[in-house]
From TrEMBL:
<keyword id="KW-0472">Membrane</keyword>
<keyword id="KW-1133">Transmembrane helix</keyword>
<feature type="transmembrane region" description="Helical">
    <location>
        <begin position="31"/>
        <end position="52"/>
    </location>
</feature>
<keyword id="KW-0812">Transmembrane</keyword>
<feature type="transmembrane region" description="Helical">
    <location>
        <begin position="64"/>
        <end position="91"/>
    </location>
</feature>
<feature type="transmembrane region" description="Helical">
    <location>
        <begin position="140"/>
        <end position="164"/>
    </location>
</feature>
<protein>
    <submittedName>
        <fullName>Uncharacterized protein</fullName>
    </submittedName>
</protein>
Length: 166
């Protein structure tokens, strides 16, 4: 016996939602990774700035200050975007009240075709919402990673400039 369109759609929607849930978890975990690594880089940067600041005879040029400032701003911005990525957000879910009406005694014994169709439509809206929100979060994550990389580059150039002056 072949599957009905409804059965095929239900299976596809289950797979789509599982994929979007996994994608959401992955993006949120990567956002937290950006926060963690930016925090580590900022800690290093402040320690390095303190160490360099107490060295006698080392002149701090405008370039050094600009690179340090750029590094701090870029890493802090990346950290904030990482936090945004890791926020759970208000993802669309099927309301339990609508499911409760299906469990009422007068509806319970009815044919389930219409209920499956309505649930499929609700799952389609849910999957669409989750995909849209995950795509936005993924783009924010890419910007966060790019800012983090630029911040690390700025700090790296700062270290090189200071090393050449010693």
């Amino acid at each position: 016996m072949s599957d009905t369109v409804g059965e095929v759609l239900a299976a596809e929607l289950r797979e789509t939602m599982a994929t979007e849930r996994a994608r959401k978890s992955s993006i949120e975990a990567k956002g937290l990774s950006v926060v963690t690594t930016c925090g580590a880089f900022l800690t290093f940067l402040f320690g390095f700035a303190t160490f360099v600041g107490v060295r006698e005879g080392v002149e701090r040029s405008g370039l050094v200050l600009a690179l340090v400032s750029a590094g701090v701003v870029l890493l802090a911005a990346a950290c904030l975007l990482g936090i945004l990525c890791s926020l759970p957000g208000l993802y669309h879910e099927i309301e339990t009240e609508s499911l409760r009406t299906m469990a009422s005694p007068d509806v319970w014994e009815e044919d389930g075709t219409e209920a499956r169709r309505e649930l499929a439509l609700a799952r389609i809206l849910q999957a669409s919402d989750w995909h849209r929100r995950n795509t936005i979060k993924a783009r924010v994550l890419l910007v966060a990673i790019a800012l983090e990389a630029l911040g690390v580059i700025a700090v790296g150039f700062d270290v090189i400039v200071l090393a050449l002056r010693w």
